[in-house]
UniProtKB/TrEMBL annotation:
This is DNA 3'-5' helicase. InterPro entries: Helicase_C-like, P-loop_NTPase. The lineage of its organism: Eukaryota, Viridiplantae, Streptophyta, Embryophyta, Tracheophyta. Its EC number is 5.6.2.4. It catalyses: Couples ATP hydrolysis with the unwinding of duplex DNA by translocating in the 3'-5' direction.
Length: 483
């Protein structure tokens, strides 16, 4: 059961699950008791406050305001409190007990407004939410439907308002490129995963932070790739629980050699360790492989020695742990396949965001206010667009209203040339340059370092692939000159 599946998705589901087509029940995605509003905003904070203090929102007891970023929810909720509106923020960065407390207060009507990320509402048992406000543009029509659907579950008339801000759209669209990976980076990563040192059946590890920085691939994406290697068409590895793999060991009672004579694990530790200042540093997976046990068993044994007073130890370097089941016949082909798959996922997300923006942009700029639409109330045209989206392969060009990112800039090439010359100490790829020009942080080029650069985020509104191509052209010129 789902409220947000396109025709193509439904066809795939019924095929995989072998469900007869006559057992498929389809209903409208938007309930009839929801009134949908969209307005353009150049000052969302001010407009949000005005909206909450005007009818019908001023009389509502339960309102959810959805934001994209965690920090944004904290800032907006504080602003509302400063203006005499009881509000609390909710996002996954809060402690679980604090999140539960906010949900309890909201469900008991002790706070009027919850300012939240998408994390709020999953399994929310509250039928009398009267209003949903999108302070930020949802990333897809599916997300928009799910979040507006949290209003009016008791069947009463409820109101949903979306603030459209094109700058926020460009930023959201830009950030969807933060997970992208180049094929040569993926190839190098896979060569490390399946390196000669890592034989079939042995326990292997990848330290998350250093690996992420080395290949300039986000930790979440690295884990996604490893998961694909586990559950994809061919199972190449089995993932084990993540663990910190670098252990520093200190001996307190028995001398290391004497203890090693009595304890096989200590003997292995001494054999696999580097000695630094009288203590021993080793990789947990190497000891595990040496003794044919798991990393958890190594840890448990160290804990027993610690409780007996023999040793103390420290762990660092959180890592992904895995066992190789089969090595690929062609790593380059596998790299190409995974890179293509990640690119398809990225393009799908961009298409969904474009469809969401297209709908909102059409409402404020293209709607003729016929068939029941008036002012910022666009329930009829929104419902029509949603039906089109879920019933066919939706095209963002259908309305002719979508404001796509620019396809270029007269200064782009020259600015990239200046940027590369003034930062010749760094080893750039076209993707890394494009990310900086878009203001996107990455493991190898973090915002903490690069946001101070003059060109950071300057070309946010130019389509990311266009910036990448311009960067590639300039980098090729530098290589040709031997710079």
């Amino acid at each position: 059961m789902t409220a947000t599946a396109t025709t193509q998705t439904l066809e795939e589901i019924v095929t995989v699950l072998e469900i007869p087509s006559d057992n498929l029940i389809k209903t409208s995605q938007i309930r009839d008791n929801l009134q949908l509003f969209i307005s353009m905003s150049n000052n969302r904070l001010k407009d949000l406050l005005l909206l909450l203090k005007a009818s019908p929102f001023v009389d509502m007891k339960s309102i959810i305001v959805y934001c994209k970023f965690q920090g944004e929810t904290d800032y907006v909720s504080k602003y509302l409190c400063d203006n005499n509106i009881t509000a609390k923020s909710y996002h996954s960065g809060l402690l679980m007990k604090n999140r539960n407390r906010v949900q309890e207060l909201f469900c008991s009507n002790k706070i009027r407004v919850v300012v939240a990320t998408v994390a709020f509402g999953m399994g929310l048992d509250k039928s009398d939410v009267e209003g949903v406000i999108h302070y930020s543009l949802p990333e897809s029509l599916e997300e928009y439907i799910q979040e507006t659907g949290r209003a009016g579950r008791d069947g009463r008339l409820s109101y949903c308002h979306l603030f459209l801000d094109s700058t926020t759209f460009y930023k959201s669209r830009s950030l969807l490129h933060s997970d992208g990976v180049d094929e040569y980076a993926m190839s190098k990563f896979l060569f490390q995963v399946f390196s000669c040192e890592n034989s079939v059946g042995c326990i292997c590890s990848l330290v998350k932070e250093s690996t992420s920085r080395k290949f300039d691939i986000k930790e979440e994406v690295l884990f996604t790739v490893l998961t694909q290697l586990e559950i994809g068409g061919q199972q190449y590895l089995r993932l084990l629980p993540q663990f910190s793999v670098t252990c520093t060991l200190y001996f307190h009672k028995t001398s290391p050699q004497l203890l090693a004579d009595k304890d096989v694990l200590v003997r292995s530790v001494l054999d696999k360790s580097e000695t630094k200042g009288g203590h021993f540093v080793f990789d947990m997976t190497k000891v595990a492989n040496d003794l044919s046990i798991t990393v958890n068993e190594v840890f448990d044994h160290l804990q027993q020695l610690k409780f007996s007073g023999e040793i103390s130890f420290e762990l660092k370097d959180p890592a992904c742990i895995y066992v190789i089941l089969k090595k690929p016949d062609d790593l380059n082909a596998l790299s190409a396949d995974i890179t293509r798959w990640l690119s398809e996922v990225e393009n799908s997300k961009i298409s969904k965001l474009d469809a969401m923006f297209d709908l909102a942009n059409f409402a404020v700029k293209g709607c003729q206010r016929t068939d029941g639409c008036s002012g910022s109330q666009h329930t009829p045209c929104i419902q029509k667009k949603i039906i089109q989206y879920f019933s066919k392969n939706y095209s963002t060009s259908d309305s002719g209203q979508c404001t796509q990112p620019q396809r270029g800039s007269p200064f782009l090439q020259a600015d990239i040339k200046v940027f590369l010359k003034s930062n010749s100490f760094a080893k750039f790829t076209p993707r890394a340059v494009a990310r900086i020009m878009h203001g996107i942080s990455s493991p190898a080029f973090p915002s903490a370092t690069w946001s101070k650069n003059h060109f950071w985020g300057r070309y946010l509104e130019v389509d990311f692939p266009v910036v990448m191509e311009a960067a590639k052209a300039e980098l090729v010129k530098l290589v040709g000159k031997g710079e």
